[in-house]
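Troubleshooting: if your tokenizer reports a length mismatch, compare your output against this known-good record of 159 residues.
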Amino acid sequence: VTRDALEYACRVLHLALDAKKSAQLMDAYNHLALYPDAREALAALSGLKLAILSNGSPAMLDPLVKNAGLGDVLDAVISVDAVKIFKPDPRVYQLAPDKLGVDKAEIGFVSSNYWDAAGAKNFGFKVFWINRTGAQADTLGAAPDHLLGKLTELPSHVT
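Known-good structure output:
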């Protein structure tokens, strides 16, 4: 999907994209940097079960987690591949309680995507929306439980 989106964007914007440049850009995607506050927040949350629940495939997620040095920090990396459907379908959110062995009401779901926060809230998670840019909330009928400006605000709400 990422490669298709890249090719589409370049085509629409009339940007040249040869195979070599496409490969370089796709490889760069495997080395995305964490937000500056992520490590501090994750360290403060140690002792809690930490997981990623993503619309990404394991082939995409595994190198990202490895290259970010998060392999030892996370208890699980959960992909939609298990159900072959994308968020915000409730079957995706159900993967987290199933994999982590906890009730959905015990899960604190963190996202910077409002649509994902709304989907998680509708599912029954306690939701933290990280709104780094001060964006206006979407009108999706479900508000997150907490609005935070950065990840380092999260630990005081869950520990």
